[in-house]
Specification:
Order of helices and strands: EHEHHEHHHHEHEHHHHH
Structural class: mainly alpha
Distance between the termini: 30 Å
Bound molecules: adenosine-5'-tetraphosphate
CATH architecture of the largest domain: 3-Layer(aba) Sandwich
Helix content: 40-55%
Number of domains: 2
Strand order of the largest sheet: 1-2-3
Radius of gyration: 21 Å
Number of strands: 5
Shape: globular
CATH topology of the largest domain: Rossmann fold
CATH superfamily of the largest domain: HUPs
Largest sheet: 3 strands, parallel
Number of helices: 13
Length: about 350
C-alpha cells in the first residue's frame, strides 16, 4: 500500500513513437480521462525521451508528440483539470532518472521482458537507453510522488521495478521519501491484441498497418480493418467462458465491451450466437461512432499547433512546481552540495 501521507496523484505517459492506436486509447487514455474526474491530481505525459530509445526521425517525432497531445485532448483530457506535458520540457525527469540508474541493479534490468522483445536477437546493437529506460520510467512517476499509475498490462513489470527502486532508495538512505506506487490495470481492454494475430499486442510500431486501428483512421479504413480482422469460423458464444481458447474472438468482444462501456457478459447476451459476418459490422459501426469525433477533433487541433505548444509549455511550468522541490530534496538526501 502507498503511504497515506502522499497526495493521491496520478501519472502516466505514452510514447510519441508513432500514431496513437486503439490499444493506447482503450488500455490507457480512457482510464486517464475517468481518473481526472476522481479525487486525484493528474499528470499526463508524452514521453519523448523514451521514444528516442529507438531511432526516431526528428521531424516525425515533433509531429507525433503534438499529435499525441491532440489525441489526449480530443479524447477528453482537459488541460484545465490535468497537467499535460512532454517529458523533455521538464528536466527533472532525466535528472532523477540518473539517480535511479545508480539505484537500479543490472540484474533487475536484465529481467525486463520488454527489452528482450524490443531489442530482439540483436541486443548488442540496442541503445543503452533502451536497456535503462525502465529506470527513467520510475523517475517519471516518482518525480511527482505519484501514488497511482494507470497502464495497460504490458507495463506491469515496469511498475514492479518502480516499486523496487522506491523501496531500495528509501532503504539505502533511511528515509520514507518515495511512495510505493499502485498500478491501475483495469477493464476488459488492458491488452488489446493485433487484428492480424491474436497472440500479439496491438502496437504502434507493428510493421503491418492492418494489425491496428490508428486513432487517425477514417471511417472506411476502420470498417475495412475490422472486416479483415482474423477470426475463427465459429459463432460467438453466449458466455465469456466460451471465449477462453479463442484469442481473436475474445479480442473483438473485449474491444466492443470497452468501447460501449458495458461488460463482456452484456456483449455476449446481445450478440451470443451471431456469426462474425454480423458481429464485425456492428463492431465497426460502434468503433466509427466512438472514434470519429476524436479523430475529427485531433485534425482540428493539428491545424494550428501553436495552441498545443502553449498547453505543453504551461503544463511544463505547472509540472516543475511539483518536480523541482522533489528533485531538490532527493539531491539533499543523496548528498549533493548546493542542493
Ligand atoms: N495493445 C495495447 N492494449 C492495451 N494497452 C496498451 N498500451 C499500449 N498498447 C496497448 C498502453 O498504452 C500506454 C502507452 O504505451 P506506450 O506507447 O508508451 O508504449 P508501448 O506499450 O510500447 O506501446 P506500443 O504501441 O507497443 O508502442 P511501441 O510500438 O512504440 O512500442 C501504456 O500504458 C501501455 O500499457
Amino acid at each position: 500500500m502507498s503511504d497515506t501521507s502522499f497526495i493521491p496523484r496520478v501519472f502516466s505517459g505514452i510514447q510519441p513513437s508513432g500514431g496513437l492506436t486503439l490499444g493506447n486509447y482503450l488500455g490507457a487514455i480512457k482510464r486517464f480521462v475517468s481518473m481526472q474526474d476522481e479525487d486525484y491530481e493528474t499528470v499526463y505525459c508524452m514521453v519523448d525521451l523514451h521514444a528516442i530509445t529507438v531511432w526516431q526521425d526528428p521531424k516525425a517525432l515533433m509531429h507525433n508528440t503534438r499529435e499525441l497531445a491532440a489525441g489526449f485532448i480530443a479524447s477528453g483530457i482537459s488541460p484545465e483539470k490535468s497537467i499535460l506535458i512532454n517529458q523533455s520540457q521538464v528536466p527533472e525527469h532525466a535528472q532523477l532518472g540518473w539517480i535511479f540508474n545508480c539505484v537500479a541493479r543490472m540484474g533487475w534490468m536484465q529481467r525486463m521482458t520488454q527489452f528482450k522483445d524490443k531489442a530482439g536477437k540483436n541486443a548488442q546493437n540496442a541503445s543503452l537507453g533502451l536497456f535503462g529506460y525502465p529506470a527513467l520510467m520510475a523517475a517519471d512517476i516518482l518525480v511527482y510522488h505519484a501514488t497511482h499509475v494507470p497502464v495497460g498490462e504490458d507495463q506491469k513489470q515496469h511498475l514492479e521495478l518502480t516499486r523496487d527502486i522506491a523501496t531500495k532508495f528509501n532503504h539505502d538512505f533511511g528515509v520514507d521519501f518515495f511512495p510505493i506506487t499502485e498500478p491501475v490495470i483495469e477493464g476488459a481492454a488492458t491488452r488489446v491484441m493485433s487484428l492480424r494475430d491474436g497472440s500479439k499486442k496491438m502496437s504502434k510500431s507493428d510493421p503491418s498497418d492492418a494489425s491496428r486501428i490508428n486513432m487517425t483512421d477514417d471511417a472506411d479504413t476502420i470498417a475495412k480493418k475490422i472486416r479483415k480482422a482474423k477470426t475463427d469460423p465459429d459463432a460467438l458464444p453466449s458466455e465469456a467462458k466460451g471465449l477462453e481458447d479463442r484469442p481473436e474472438a475474445r479480442n473483438l468482444v473485449n474491444i466492443y465491451a470497452t468501447l460501449a462501456d458495458i461488460s463482456v457478459d452484456q456483449v455476449l447476451a446481445e450478440h451470443g450466437g451471431a456469426q462474425f459476418g454480423t458481429f464485425k459490422p456492428a463492431l465497426a459501426d460502434l468503433a466509427v461512432a466512438k472514434l470519429s469525433p476524436i479523430s475529427a477533433e485531433m485534425a482540428r487541433l493539428m491545424d494550428d499547433v501553436s495552441e498545443i505548444d502553449k498547453v505543453l509549455a504551461r503544463g511544463a511550468e505547472q509540472a516543475r512546481e511539483i518536480t523541482a522541490p522533489i528533485l531538490k530534496k532527493t539531491y539533499e538526501i543523496v548528498g549533493m552540495v548546493g542542493s
